[in-house]
Amino acid sequence: MDSRNLIRFLFFTFIIALLLLLTLTTIPLTNTGEPPDCAINSRWCTSKTRFFQPTIKQPPKPTTRIHTTDVPHHPLDPLTLTELDKVRSTLLENQLFLHSNTYALHSVVLEEPDKSFVLTWKPGDPLPARKASVIARVKSKIHVLTVDLGTGEVSPRDVGEHSGYPTMTMEDMTSLTWAPLGDAEFNRTIMARGVDLKDVSCLPISIGWFVKWANWEFHLKPDPRAGIVISRARVKDPNTGEMRNVMYKGFTSELFVPYMDPTDAWYFKTYMDAGEYGFGLQAMPLDPLNDCPRNAYYMDGVFAAGDGKPYVRENMVCVYESYAGDIGWRHSESPITGMEIREVRPKVTLVVRMAASVANYDYIVDWEFQTDGLIRVKVGLSGILMVKGTSYDNMNQVNEPENIYGTLISENVIGVIHDHYITFHLDMDVDGPDNSFVKVNLKRETTQPEESPRLSYLKAVRNVAKTEKDAQVKLKLYDPSEYHIVNPSKKTRVGNPVGYKLVPGGTAASLLDLDDPPQKRGAFTNNQIWVTPYNKSEEWAGGLFAYQSQGDDTLAVWSQRDRAIENKDIVMWYTLGFHHVPCQEDYPIMPTVSSSFDLKPVNFYESNPILNIPPHFEKDLPVCNAVAATA
Amino acid sequence: MDSRNLIRFLFFTFIIALLLLLTLTTIPLTNTGEPPDCAINSRWCTSKTRFFQPTIKQPPKPTTRIHTTDVPHHPLDPLTLTELDKVRSTLLENQLFLHSNTYALHSVVLEEPDKSFVLTWKPGDPLPARKASVIARVKSKIHVLTVDLGTGEVSPRDVGEHSGYPTMTMEDMTSLTWAPLGDAEFNRTIMARGVDLKDVSCLPISIGWFVKWANWEFHLKPDPRAGIVISRARVKDPNTGEMRNVMYKGFTSELFVPYMDPTDAWYFKTYMDAGEYGFGLQAMPLDPLNDCPRNAYYMDGVFAAGDGKPYVRENMVCVYESYAGDIGWRHSESPITGMEIREVRPKVTLVVRMAASVANYDYIVDWEFQTDGLIRVKVGLSGILMVKGTSYDNMNQVNEPENIYGTLISENVIGVIHDHYITFHLDMDVDGPDNSFVKVNLKRETTQPEESPRLSYLKAVRNVAKTEKDAQVKLKLYDPSEYHIVNPSKKTRVGNPVGYKLVPGGTAASLLDLDDPPQKRGAFTNNQIWVTPYNKSEEWAGGLFAYQSQGDDTLAVWSQRDRAIENKDIVMWYTLGFHHVPCQEDYPIMPTVSSSFDLKPVNFYESNPILNIPPHFEKDLPVCNAVAATA
Fold first, then answer.
1. Residue in B53, B344, B474 closest to A287 by CB
2. Of A215, A396, A479, B299, which one's alpha carbon is 20 to 30 angstroms from that of A113?
3. Is A295 within 8 Å of A96 (Cβ atoms)?
4. CATH class label, B31-169+204-630
5. What is the ipTM of this complex?
6. Looking at chain B from residue 276 to 295, which residues have their Cβ under 8 Å from any Cβ of chain A?
7. What is the CA A606 to chain-centroid distance, rounded?
8. Of B410, B373, B50, nearest to B235 (Cα)?
9. Among B235, B210, B212, which residue's Cα sits nearest to residue B39?
């Protein structure tokens, strides 16, 4: 595997060099300072009642946030800059690290307190002991450690024996990026392409409790591997005023991006972007006004570099209120009733966004919270295709168009066919941790002779999944189901179990051979839906050490144990997929392609929870003028 | 069938009566006067170059549009109020109508000139003879007539012999709505429910050429049966400046809404909302600020009532520029390259919207035009469920929950399971009328031993549909294809055929027995995609006379002829589907549920057509203040 790895790194470097050719200009960043005042930004403000203003009164003034004084306020708050410093100094004094100049910290993140603790913690309660979870490489050996920030104790954690390596550090990537430049032949090749190589540098990256928006409350933190982590998502019941649990934790667990070219320089291109590169590490500062609208609030990530030193990734996440002109609900009376009735409510949502640039590709991940209790998770793909050189400059030179592994997207450039799979860890806790997974199957029922002029109709048949294998789902258009996570102990007024359903949108399934090495590593894409019992160590669908792993620690392996999942603390996994046959429009930078799935209340509320929100009137809306008019 | 129809009408009336209970207050309408000035509203303005302003300078002032002076400007402009009057007076003097007091005009719309004429017509050219297409009932007999508005000639049109009746007139619906009130027993039942029946009246309903937005140009008209008709959609090529043909005509051809309850009072509920009720006839005035944002421009519909008299449906369609905070394209350099490169362009789109209230349900239909050439057609469902009374007030009283045909959504109220299918007629003319339909199948290819460490990969295999049956498509997640409409005579610079692809989103397939009477009528939903050769008379997927038809004039019947479709003028049909298992949140008015499909350029452009649009800078954006601050 060593020579293949070298080839891989060479190509990685080469692609980066090519990317330099395609880049344009740099836009100066402006940071915006104040968190959104819910009283200004939302009419459904949970703290005060004020009319909605779709745009803020004054553009936020650019400021730079100082993180040296950050302190954690919530058990799930990520490690602060000061805490990251302390982790590093503690480790450097530890016997394991003493006299080692060659250590690298592959991951330094908060070791989250037990779920049972977090679920009972309330603001004002003391924080639990702050601990860091560290993945370190010392003298070529991997150690998974817990560092107690209070006592300074460093203790090893047994994660079992698995193939694979931890997420690359930014230093790994940088040094690997530079390594080929020591090779004169490589340099000659680059120069022959007229590429002026610029400096290549690296950066590694935490913060936050978001205040509350409308009827939602959740904890949001940047994470070096997952990107954005949403925890403790709770929504207000309009009848009781109670904040009700929906999801304990949701995040991008792994990505799988197999390219469809089996030839020498391409067969290994089957990336797992979270576990190999760090989805959060690759999230670059967002560009205000373009990545997010003017009313956005920005959050920084504070991460640790390979040597343990903390870095700040500015404007890594944005949060904004969005009004696209969509309708929350409406009803007009049909003209035949003759009644002039027209009740309509506009839809305003809260969007949490990050954009990760995993080398050439840009992934835009949105967590969208709606006032009707729906959570929409949307993934957008943009950026630069991974392309392949060819001697062809026109398709009329190609005898078998199927055999070029893609599309000739410009002269001498093939956009290679590939898939994108994004697997989400969705630890649903609907009104509490113990939930069941129910497939509500829509099944054709045939009527009996003389029963009805109808021959057939659809019946909804509820199947409660007892064990993990019952919950391995391949979606089928002609055998459709709804997928509910219900709390079997809690019923609505009229006796339906309270629940949320997973609503897949447009998606794609992996068609690779199950025994193909990439598919074994990406086996978490063998189904679109999985449900596992909660297990603190089962967070990363491709395995804790995804890099060069052989698939022995994936979601597919865990699920094969077929554990009981009925009325238990369960985790749902959903994979959003894209087949991508490139076209010329994707070149040189592709217009964003998006898909999404929803987590939607189903008999969670007693009735439409947004029936009572007020409509817009002219007086509620701001008056806008061109800048020129006000100058 | 007569007694069934009576039952049907009784129920229809009863439901309307129930709706009265649920309605709230009336909001006064404000009309906005001026069409959007592209120079103000778009930075990609085709006529001038100005910076984009996401909100207009001043809120449009409410005006009432006068339609008596309307004149047609384009061959596809709908009949004006004056023309509708002339059709009526011409018919009343005609031998067929003389001395008949019982005639009814089921449809009076523009008889569109031949496609070949429209395709060569340019602004400034004289208009063709204006003709009306009339479906009239005289002494219980249906006549399909052409009225020449210039010569006054009335000529019958042979549409063949088919089962079924034309779309109900508003008068049909109104009189039917009143008929049951002559029945004392019926009235007693209503009064026993405490319902105060209000007057029931009816309205029937055209206009326009939309000027142009960004790189798009299209003709938009309200239609009594289809709702919105988009014609002659053309998009500018950024390289040549040429306006290129994309779609000759696109509209909602038919809806099919089968309810899944085979019992006596419910089995027949299998609505075809366009052909039976008139999707446009049921489109009520939009509510400014709530149905559409403040920057919306509104259009009226001018339709003919059953007696031929023209009526105006105010604010039936809105058109607005939308910015939801989404990203058109982006690329950031990965941190490992060390380059501070971050190029992002916001996505701004144009939305054309109508909302039809077919009795209880509200359908929101959006045609969204993107600057990257993509057309997204989105259907939203809101309004009031069709519900069924029950003696149950809690699920604990129900022994077999599967057998109540739905969900107990409130005490004594069952939301009955049903499907919604919306079938679109998409007459694609990609760079000209003669196109081909190509299935680009993604097929697993197994490698030969020793060929590669990979066992498998996906290959894109192009299959050009020769005849209609090749183009009858059931979507399959595990046998995926892209669906291209290409112009085989036109290639890109590097030799790819220019095309557009249909990109389905989340959808549903009808699972009813193919021999079930409702499915025979709704047989146009037997596949998700169909392609037929262009035929002026094949516009309505459920048949010209959908009402009580027996399925002898549907898309499925036409397609069965298996005509040649390669390199011909072809029409693509796509059906968007929803299974709806109601939940308590849907009651009493359901939060909007949406799904969509895209028509997307695929090697239509030489490269990303929006690469050169400029980013937002602070100076480009308007300054907004709360109304209070400016008062």
1. B344
2. A215
3. no
4. mainly beta
5. 0.85
6. 281-282, 284-285, 287, 289-294
7. 31
8. B373
9. B212
